[in-house]
Design a protein that fits this description.
Radius of gyration: 23 Å
Low-confidence stretches: 1-21
CATH architecture of the largest domain: 3-Layer(aba) Sandwich
CATH topology of the largest domain: Rossmann fold
Structural class: alpha/beta
Number of strands: 13
Largest sheet: 6 strands, parallel
Distance between the termini: 45 Å
Order of helices and strands: HEHEHEHHEHHHEHEHEHEEHEHEHHHHEE
Strand content: 5-15%
Strand order of the largest sheet: 2-1-3-4-5-6
Length: about 525
Amino acid sequence: MLKKFFLTLAVIFFLMPSVYAERILFIPHDDRPVSSQHPADVVAQLGYEVISPPTELLTQPEELWAWFFENAPFANAAVVSSDALLYKGLIPSRSHEIPAEVLNSRVENFKILREKNPNLNLYLFGSLMRTPHVGTPGDREEPAYYGQYGTQIFQLTRLLDKQEISKLSGAEKKYLAELEKAIPDEILDDWFARRAKNLAATKKLLDFTHDDIINFFIIGRDDNAPLSQTHRENRQLLEYMKNIPKTKAQSHAGIDEFAMLLLTRAVNDLNCDLPFVNVQFNRGVGAKTIPHYSDEEIGQSIRDEIVIAGGMFVPKPERADFVLYVNTDPKGNNYEPHNSCPPVPLSKKMEKYFARNAEYFSAMVEDAVNKNLPVGIADIIDANGADNFLMEQLYEKNLLFKLQAYGGWNTATNTSGFAIGTGILAKKMSRHSIDRLLATRYLDDWAYQANVRTQIADYLTKYPNPYSIFLNLREYEPEVVKRKNVLMHEFAVKYFPQWNNFVVSNPWHRMFECRIDFD
């Protein structure tokens, strides 16, 4: 009897630390599925309790801070968005009117939080304001004036950036002067003043990272370009953070993948793990590809993402815990066939080009799978959505559910970051959990972004102003959602009928993203 008592006590003692260690606070920068639902779901497959605030708090910084202070003492780690805690979220950070003293007070909360929770592993992700190439009238993600002056603002900052790192030609100097006259002073004052406030807050967060108040801090460069205001500010930040090692802080091309990467790092740190990751690229330019919405080579971005996730790059796939295969274009191009309204069909020549590329890359993946390597794919040949030619090859070779991870959504770094995080954690998952996560990605990245969204965009052309509906579904949403569910289920029945028990919705009432809920 006594022996049984001590055995029970030992089991309880053994289990208690792991139960406590399974609690991670997660504050996303908005409630889009890729920002919140999907990364949390990956970690939940490991048995961790991922606790997030009620959705309505994400746009109420004071209430959100109260929630954070209340829950922090009961967690071992926290992965949180500074944009949510300072500005009401990623998109509000681009057009807020918050006074500098209020922002400074919110930044100081991180110091108070650390004093009250000295053992909490605190991982932070934020953003530099983006500089879109063009202004789109009605785009709610930028100040209203960006719809009219956005293209000129981008060109102005491109030249200002270039002027500081090289020389402008005579024509460029003339164009710069014309732009400065064409854009009203009050608009430029507003745009630059907001960026200055955000940059000052970011620098203070870097100071806190240097002083170990924050364990790790990533600064995202969303929708970036090699010459732009975002690139210009990043040069300032890199100089400011030169005394902070990359293992504590990074500026990185991307943003939406950060939650997945930092949640992966939190799990690795809690388990004292250092996973080894190897990366293989498709033939041609490969790692030197500079994708759309980025200002650096994808090879460097992926190396940084491995560090952010708490892993280490290794040169040989045989030594790796996870091998990421990256589907790039041989010439280093990046295509957008799935993100227009109305859709633009591929030419026969381009279809043959994509097909040949997919055959070569799928053979690489098949060979690795046959060698029992833990393989994942970052499908970045297209800027938004999966490569249909590759996915058909994977389906025909019966490889879809022999992978550890897949990513093909949105920008290249979004894709690679999510695949790296999921692939690293997959070794701790059951095969059923891995397949469930793969099914989610295939439904979102392949079925929806690369096919159904395009089909619905074509369908919307029968209405006036189809692109406006694409951005804001309004009264057309019930009709679109019904049609979307039919098309998505038809797709699933054809390619993976075992994962056909789901419902699709549009949480942001637009066509860019969807939410997938399994029964």
